Amino acid sequence: MWLAAGVAVPVSVVALVVLALHGRRVLLAALAGLVALVALTAVFDNVIVGSGIVAYDESRILGVRLGVAPVEDFSYAIVAALALPALWVLLRPRRAR
């Protein structure tokens, strides 16, 4: 339960710093992707949790929910939307930077 917060927050902060250091355009593109991915996650996580396809042990989640989906479900989407573009810009060949 706390792993999502303990890993997602620091990784997201580092990714945001990397993206910001590579320019406003890069940061805004990543943030646009983040908004889209979180919106899709909100819709479809609520569908699968609300329909009973996925269930969570209440003792293993933080208890905060967005709709019926636990907030931990959003940690992967947030980290992926920020960390992958950050890795992309960091791993580009030098001449492309």
From TrEMBL:
Lycopene cyclase domain location: 15-86
Nucleotidyltransferase found in the keyword field: no
Primary site of residence: membrane
Domain of life: Bacteria
GO biological process terms held by the UniProt record: carotenoid biosynthetic process
Membrane topology of the entry: Multi-pass membrane protein
A GO MF term: lycopene beta cyclase activity
Pfam families associated with the record: Lycopene_cyc (PF18916)
Pathway: Carotenoid biosynthesis
InterPro entries to which the protein is assigned, alphabetical: Lycopene_cyclase_dom
Transmembrane segments: 6-23, 30-54, 74-91
Keywords: Carotenoid biosynthesis, Isomerase, Membrane, Transmembrane, Transmembrane helix
Localization per record: Membrane
GO CC terms: membrane
Protein name (record): Lycopene cyclase domain-containing protein
Biological source species: Amnibacterium setariae
